[in-house]
Each structure stands twice: as C-alpha cells, then as structure tokens.
Predict the 3D structure of the following.
Amino acid sequence: MTINGRAVTAEVEPRTLLVHFIREQMRLTGTHVGCETGYCGACTVHLDGKAIKSCTMFAVQAEGADIMTIEGVADGEKLHPVQEGFWERHGLQCGFCTPGMIMSAIALLDENDHPSEAEIRHGIEGNLCRCTGYHNIVRAVEYAAAKMRGEEPPPPDWERVS
Amino acid sequence: MYPRQFDYTAPSSIEDALTALGEDAKVMAGGMSLIPLMKLRLFSPGLVVDIGRIPGLEGIEDNGDHIEIGALVRHATTASHPLIAQNAQALATAASLTGDVQVRNRGTTCGALAHSDVAADQPAGALACGAIMVARSSKGTREIDAGDFFVDSLTSALEPNEILTSIRIPKTGPGEGSAYDKLGRRGGHSDYAVAGAAAWVRKSNGSIADARVAITGVGTKPQLAESVGQALIGTDGSDAAIGAAAEKAVDEITVLEDLYGSEEYKTHLAKVYVRRTVKAALANAS
C-alpha cells in the first residue's frame, strides 16, 4: 500500500487492525485509537480518498490501497486549510478527536465545497468529541470551506456583534 | 482489542470463495458488522473469506423488469445511485441512514442484509420493496424472497456454504412508491433503529391497490407487517385509513423491550413510523 504517498510493504497477521499497523508498524501515531468499537471516529483515515475507520478494518484488507493519515495532510510547514480552521476557530480542546475530525472534514469538503451547517454536522456524525460540543468544530470547517473556495472566512463568533 | 487469531483468504473469484467456505468460515465484505463482533470476541470464525477483491460484484444493473445490486455495493452507493432512488426509495433512504459516513463508505448493502440485525435499516427497505435475495453455493444458485430471508436475530436463511451475491428489486411501476423512516438510538436518525418502518404502495384510480409494510427494531427480526398491508389495500389512503391500518403494526410481531425502549413505547413508535412511511410512500408514488 501507499501511506501519505510513500509505498510501504510489510507482513502482518490477518487480525492486525489497520490502525495498529499505521501506528505501531508505520510509526504514524497521529491517527488515534479511541473507542475501539467503530463509534468514535478518532481513527479516521482516508482509504482511496474516502473516510474510513481504521480500527474497524484489517490491514490485509488495505493491501494495495492508497492511505492518507493526518500526517499527510499539511504541505510541509503549511497547514491544510482544515487544520488552519481548527487552529483559528478553536476547533479543539483536548485534541484527542482532532485528527479524525480533520480527516472527516477534508473528506466532506472534497465532496461538497459549500456545506451548510447541517451538512457539516451530518458529515462529522461519525466522529465524537467530548470537549467542544461541536460548535467550534463546525465553525472551523466553515472557515476551511471558505478558504478552500478562495473566499474570506466568516469572522469568529467572539468578534461578531450581537 | 484484537480478535482471536483466524485464517484469512481473499479469493479472486466467487468459485474460489465458495470452495473455501465451510462450517467454521465466515464471509466478509465491508466488515462493518463482522469486525466489531470479532473484536469483542462475541464471534470468532476460524477462517475469514474476504470477498472484497472479487471482481464483478460492485455493480448496480438495470435488468429490464428489475434492478440488481451486487454483493460489494456499499451503503453510500445504495444511498445515492439514481437507479435505486427511482426503483427502491425505501432502500436508498435506509442506506443513507445506516451507520455514519465512514461506515457507509465501507459497509455493503448485501452484508447488512446477510447480517440480519433486528434493528438494522436496510432489511426493512428490502422487505417493503419486495427484494429477492440471490444466494450462491457450489451447488448452484437459489432465490429467496425477502419475506423468508430474515429468520431470527442475526440469523438469515443463508446456509454456511452460501454467499449472498446480489439482490433483485422489481422496478417501480406506475403509481408505485416507497419510503423508510426511523427513530435512531441516539435520537434523530443516528444509530440503529429503536423502531423504524418501510412502506411500499401501488396507487390505482384513487385508491391503494397493493401495499407492503415492514418494521425493524421492535421484534426478533425485521419483518413484514402483513395485516397493515392488507388493511391498506382498497382504501383511499386518507389519514383515517392509514391510521386504522397502522393500529395493526405489531399484530404479527413479538415486541421485545430492550435498553432503548419498553414494549409499550416500541409498539407506539411502530405505529407512528408506519403512519409516516405509508404517507411518504404515497407521496413518492408517481
């Protein structure tokens, strides 16, 4: 398979989960292991361009696939617009869900460059966050969507006059 | 959490997959139902036969009087494909409400049907749309009516040596339409169904000429509510007629209390979702 554009080859046991292969054999620990039951989405990576949960897939199933993890998202030192959005709009507190959230948000914006708030919430339904209440995550994705369309992002909530 | 050790094979043809199947083997497509069970060690097959690399199973075909959905068609595709939207709206909606984005990108419609979870969405859609399940073994192919396919909790009519290679759904004719809706365990549409219903109707000359209603989440298996269908036939599809038919929602079903609702609550929800989906199916009928 390729991971973040790099071709990799390894022998694994059939029961090795993709997330453990990525973290322990590839040493890419940005992808997190959260609930381990397929609910929380902290382990979300892209498989051939689609968001999937790497804790609910065997590494052998990904043989020959193109995997992208959170480590492959930035362009060198330049953050991906979604990463920048999470930074600018306080889209995280503890940060545990953030890699998976960002991978789901990127997949959402790949398919829909102008999502409504409801579409953003639907697009990240497979990712649980126990800190933020999701509000700032939605704002972060709105920021990224605007940036990726070449538009000025909406101002942060704390600068909006009520 | 690792599953117990198992042998793994990823054959490149259906014939090879059928040869590999035996008593201690399990077929895997997307793995969205199987892998969580294996990780919890609730189920530990000796051999996993991964059909994910078999070519020719990912298609949605227009076969004249019916459409055919292959074993590797994923929920996301079922939810968005125009042929399914035109001919099996209940199944398309059920697929769109299955799991979450990541699950819909991996899990397959045929896999969800074969898994036969009591609270899954797509079995109800398949039942209402009159699906025929196509099961292959090394001895040949047999067709199973959706109504005979869901046997019990997590138990389908598939034999251990069979693979559900596709399902066939009759094309939507004049005056026909279907719909699916549910209450999810996490509220709204999220997660498995606390209760849900799928309805299919055929309208003719201002009345309901035929109807099938299926219910999920409340009993021991997804199943047809035959009394509801019978009660709808011949009526004008008015709110009163639908309300009267919906009262029969659980006549054939043993309603079971679980973590998500009492028997009384689930019975109530079944009636609510029967009413809503019959109305939606009538609205969708061309």
